[in-house]
Design brief:
rod-shaped; 127 residues; three-stranded mixed sheet; alpha+beta; 5 strands; 3 helices
């Protein structure tokens, strides 16, 4: 084992190898997690009509946990509870996989419902 000079004439022992995980920390910004969550919601709602607004998300990261709030619009009629559960499950899964954070909460807010006209029904006013 060789020694290293510190420039003053004293010899120091080389620094012991430190594992990468012990050298520092990685911090992922809340806005990055919110973009991932919004994209995951978009993936779940890919069959939406074109006039719906894209989902957006707000995130609060506390320690290694992301608390997520997703705002969506849905076509109607649909099973709102099932659609929200699908969004919740997929967002939590994608955030865990891509960011490595725990996701104890995904709140889904349905901001608007878009009525899908039935086939064969006349549009507009009828007399």
């Amino acid at each position: 084992m060789s020694s290293v000079s510190d420039g003053v004439g004293e010899l120091r022992r080389p620094m012991a190898a430190v594992a990468a995980a012990e050298r520092g920390a990685t911090r992922i910004a809340d806005r990055v997690v919110s973009k991932i969550a919004a994209q995951a919601a978009r993936e779940t709602l890919s069959d939406q009509s074109e006039d719906t607004t894209r989902p957006h998300a707000t995130v609060v990261v506390h320690h290694a946990a992301a608390h997520i709030r997703v705002h969506i619009e849905l076509d109607y009629p649909c099973d709102i509870g099932v659609r929200c559960a699908d969004v919740r499950r997929h967002v939590a899964s994608r955030v865990r996989a891509l960011v490595g954070m725990e996701v104890p909460e995904v709140a889904v807010h349905v901001e608007r419902l878009h009525l899908i006209p039935a086939h064969g029904v006349a549009q507009g006013r009828t007399r």
